[in-house]
Amino acid sequence: MFKKYFLFTAIFLATCSSVEDVPLPITSTSEKAVEFFNKAVYHVEQGEWNEGKNNFQSALRIDPNFVMANLWGWSEDPIQNRKLTETAISNKDKASDAERLRVEMMMAGREGDQATRLKLAEELVEKYPNSSESYEVLADMYREQYKLDDAIANYDKALKINPDNFRVHAQIAQLHVVTGQNILLPKERQSKDIAIKHAEEMIRIRPKAPFAHQIRANIERADSNFEEAIKLYQNLVDVCNETGSTAKGTALLISGHNLMFSGRFDDAMRTYDEAISIANTPQTAFNYNRFKVHAHLFDNKYYEALDLLDEMLKNVGESSASKEAVINNTANIYWNKIMIQAHNQQKKEAFESLDQWKKYRKTNLDAVNKEDFQQRRVDGYNAGNYATEAWINVLFGEYERASSLLDKHYEIAKNWKNVAALDGYSGLYGMVYVMQGNPEKALDYFGDRITPSNNIYYSYFKALALKAIGRADEANGIFEYIANFNFLGWEPGLTRNLSINELKS
User: Fold this and answer.
1) What is the DSSP string of 446-496?
2) 419, 362, 368, 417: which is closest to 385 by C-alpha?
3) What are the pLDDT digits (tens) for 216-243?
4) Residue 497 in contact with residue 298, Cβ under 8 Å?
5) CA distance 222 to 258
6) What is the pTM of this model?
7) What digits encode the pLDDT tens for the residues 366-418?
8) CA distances from 342 to 338, 392, 488 (A)
């Protein structure tokens, strides 16, 4: 028989609030399972992913049908992840309304149906108006639709109920300052001071939480205050050493990012290697190596990046938790090779990597759909293939072929209920017209959706179009954003130095 319990973190975080924060109910057959679940959530919020995963697994060993543990939990095995999701779905009507709504939000998200996600979040607030978590969830839904005023209003409501809501402080901080490719407020509304205020609130609430110190250090890195960031990242590492946190690997990794952007490339590489050496799982080490690949791009070392990918390919079996993870990781390696080879104008190699990528994606699709066929996955597979092949053709000047592929992509993506569903289509068509010398037409495609805060890669080409029609100030604003984007990823890796060169020209 299921029993209703309450989320510990909500109770814990409400201790300084003048208004009682009523936690959202969770349902399980075991109080001990709930205890493990609460520990898992706490660790995830701290940025301690390994501890979180282990506690979710402990909860599920006791109560395999525990809805929230299945919803929040994850595995390095993609097949197991699918099973967790399906178990949450099959048991949602046996749980509380709060849990049912959260599961249905996830289901709508899988279909790209943001409008339904928002409607369900609004229902959650209606049913649980005295829970800070309800307003937090609603704010998150507004944020993903870029309705940022509504997001902030609901984050504020959450904090009025519970000023010590750790997650909300993190979300507000990251609306004001770049901490990766996160959704940001318009530039004129961003405030470093507000970001610092909320990061310091996180540290006050949980002085030993790695994620709190990470956000605080990221704020300085985003502002190119690399020396100050070095001190703050060291403080993060020290916190991890003091508590024995497995977040130390992440702490070293992002410390390496800061060193790289400060111009200390060799020191960065040594720090990446240290992070890899203490990675708590082979998959984590694999993920850290991907960052090394992208770091090479920032240093214009394309062949070194490709060499590292080849090394990762040789060892992919040892760095994966299951045969399905091997397939996923191999596909990821080939996608990175496509991107680098295409930008390095290695046409033969890029198309060979494309064939391999498509092969492994198809194998993964078949594995995932083996027991539970879903057209959504097939559509996503086909749309991704069309967009990626179109992208390669654009880079090699095969515009007619690219257009044909993009039109096929559009026929699928137009049906997705997601504000970003057509960003790839618009961005790639914009690239076509930039390269064909028609910047006005390019800008029609880029429109208002393509901005540096939601897509750095296409924004670079948008800036080229703006520059071509004489809107130099707008173009330089985008180039400056990309040139000063001090966070790792393939998009800035390919466009940062190009943007720096545009600013010099």
Assistant:
1) HTTT--TTT-HHHHHHHHHHHHHTT-HHHHHHHHHHHHT--S--HHHHHHH
2) 362
3) 999 999 999 999 999 999 999 999 999 9
4) yes
5) 9
6) 0.89
7) 876 655 556 767 888 899 999 999 999 999 999 999 999 999 999 999 988 88
8) 6, 6, 20
Q: Which long-range contacts (CB under 8 A, 24 or more apart) does 96-100 make?
A: 96/4, 96/24, 96/25, 96/26, 96/27, 97/127, 98/24, 98/25, 98/26, 98/124, 98/127, 98/128, 98/134, 99/24, 99/25, 99/26, 99/27, 99/67, 99/68, 99/71
Let me know: does 332 contact 309? Beta carbons within 8 Å.
no
- What is the enclosing helix (H) or strand (E) of 4? strand 3-6
- Is 281 in a helix, a strand, or coil? coil
Distance (Å, whole) CA 76 – CA 87: 17
In the predicted structure, residue 14 carries a pLDDT above the cut 50: no
Looking at this protein, which amino acid is placed at residue 192?
Answer: K
Q: At what angle do helices 114-127 and 132-144 cross, to 10 degrees?
A: 160
Dihedral sign computed on CA atoms, order 356, 253, 343, 464: positive
| Phi and psi torsions of 28, nearest 5° | -155, 165
**What distance in Å separates the CA atoms of residue 9 and residue 430, rounded to the nearest whole number?**
46
DSSP classification of residue 25:
E
Residue 427: Cβ within 10 Å count: 24
Provide the angle, in degrees to the nearest 10, between the axes of the packed helices 399-413 and 423-435. Answer: 160
Q: Check the CA dihedral 357-359-361-367 and report its sign.
A: negative
- Rounded Cα–Cα distance for residues 400 and 390 (Å): 10
How far CA 333 is from CA of 116, 180, 313, in Å, comes to 35, 21, 7
Cβ atoms within 10 Å of 403's Cβ, excluding its own? 16
Closest to 432 in 3D by CA, of 470, 412, 461: 461
Distance CA 445, CA 423 (A): 9
CA distance 253 to 316: 20
For residues 272 and 277, give the distance between their C-alpha atoms in angstroms, rounded to a whole number: 9
CA-angle at 25, arms to 21 and 27, nearest 5°: 160
